[in-house]
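Researcher: Here's the sequence for the chain we discussed earlier.
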Amino acid sequence: MIELDLTKVNDYKTFNIGINKCYVNGVKIKTSQAGNKMLEVSLRNLDDATLIDRLPLTEKAMWRVKQFLKACQLPHHGKVAFEEKDLLSRHLMVECFAEAYKRQDGTDGTAIKVKTYLEDPNVQNLSVSSVAQAEESAVEEEDIPL
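Model: Thanks. This is the structure I predict for it:
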C-alpha cells in the first residue's frame, strides 16, 4: 500500500496563453548546452505561477534582452550595466504562447513560452540612476538637427 499526504500540495499553476502581468523573481547568468552565455529569467505572475525564460547573450538574440530590459523600464541602449537586484521585483507584462514538443518518452507535451516582453503601463519602476538619466536624455534628443 502506498500512502501519501497531499494536503499541503498546491495545484500546478502556469502562465496563460496571451498577456500576463508578472514580476521578475530571479535572474542568473548561465551557460547553455551549446556553450553560449544566457540570462535565465524567472517570472512570477499574480497567481503565483512561475515561468523560466532563457535569453541567449549572442549577437543575433540580443534584441530579446533589449526588449526584456525595456519592459523592465531599465536602460536598454548602448552599453548598460546593472546588478541582479536591479531586476528583482520589476513589474512587466509578457505575451505567452503554447509550444508543442515531444517528451523523452515519445509522448506529446505543451510548454508555455514568452513571445514578447511588454512594459506594464500601470507601473512605473524607475531608478537604476533614473533609467540612466532617461536614456541619456533620449539619446540627446535623438540628435535631431534644427
